[in-house]
Amino acid sequence: MALDLSWIRPEPKGLYLPPADAWIDPAHAVAQALVTHGHSDHARGGHGQTIATGATLAIMGLRYGVMPEGARVVDYGQSVDLAGGIRATFVPAGHVLGSAQILLERDGQRVVVTGDYKRRPDPTCAPFQPVRCDVFITEATFGLPVFRHPPIAEEIARLLATLAAHPERCVLVGAYALGKAQRLIAELRRAGHHAPIFLHGAMERMCGLYREWGIDLGELRPAAGVAKGEIAGHIVVCPPSALNDRWSRRLPDPITAMASGWMRVRQRARQRNVELPLVISDHADWDELTATIAEVDPAETWITHGREEALLRWCALHQRPARALAMVGYEDEDD
């Protein structure tokens, strides 16, 4: 039976559901928005009503200073009935705290909007849950065969070995403030590193929010105003933008590191003057993208915000109908 997908329409500013006059992750303020997760390329303020998980709404409240107006909390597995006979169910995406895929159902048809997702275990968020569907809308941030992420335990071991080899210095790790920083810290704790970890001021509030949501990050200390001798031999976590700015010069001869899937590309590491590239990503790599499409087994795959061409080619070679969506406003935010 042919699919009738007139009720979901990709537009430059997001996915639009005409019967419900609702949008998913819109790039501009709208009357009704369903938000997959709290990264700013998906979550924006100013909507008339924002429907998301409680953690995503809390993250939006922290980032924008106030809770989104008309906020409606949806738990994982909970469904919301929208106008026009559309039902939306939020399912874990495994990307960051509160991140969700959104299963849309209408007239027996099922469309899954993944937002951003990963398949690797992450102690700071609920794991990705595959959902069978007719249309699977997937990201393709790392949609090239070159991107195959190593086990995170190996990258954490490299970080700790570097720290142990240079006790008179510190290791300054650039990591995105939402999701990546907290995962990095939690993985360090899981590897047995229980020493204090120092934070750039821009990291403190989000780490505090994760703790409020029950994520144990161990002892964290602000790096500001601390003598160099106290930070020597420790790990400092900062936004990627702070790796080479004036703030970092106050640290004891820092070894610069960066946690990102893009660190697979050596040129990116050189451009940022990164001495210790850590290939740690909160997105699915090539093998995980293709394996997920095969597992979900949709009648159609829609590919967005990433390297669509290679994934389109893979779908064609495997006799899987697919199309690329021309949507704007989605960036990797240093992964």
List keywords for this structure.
single chain; 335 residues; alpha/beta; Metallo-beta-lactamase, Chain A; Rossmann fold; 24% strand; nuclease; Ligase-associated DNA damage response exonuclease; exonuclease activity; MBL
Going across the major beta sheet, what is the strand order?
7-8-9-10-11-18-19
Which fold does the CATH topology of the largest domain refer to? Metallo-beta-lactamase, Chain A
Mean of residue pLDDT values = 94
Task: Look at the helices and sheets and give the structural class.
Answer: alpha/beta
Explain how this protein is built:
This is Ligase-associated DNA damage response exonuclease. Keywords: Exonuclease, Hydrolase, Ligase, Nuclease. By secondary structure, this protein is of the alpha/beta class. Helix content is 24%, strand content 24%. The chain contains 8 helices and 19 strands. It has helices spanning 54-64, 152-165, 180-190, 201-212, 228-231, 266-271, 286-296, 308-317, and strands spanning 9-11, 14-17, 22-24, 32-34, 49-52, 71-73, 79-82, 86-92, 100-106, 109-113, 135-140, 171-174, 197-199, 220-222, 235-238, 255-259, 276-278, 300-306, 322-324. A hairpin with a 2-residue loop joins strand 9 (100-106) and strand 10. The chain starts with 8 loop residues before the first strand and ends in an 11-residue tail after the last strand. Mean pLDDT is 94; it is low at 328-332.
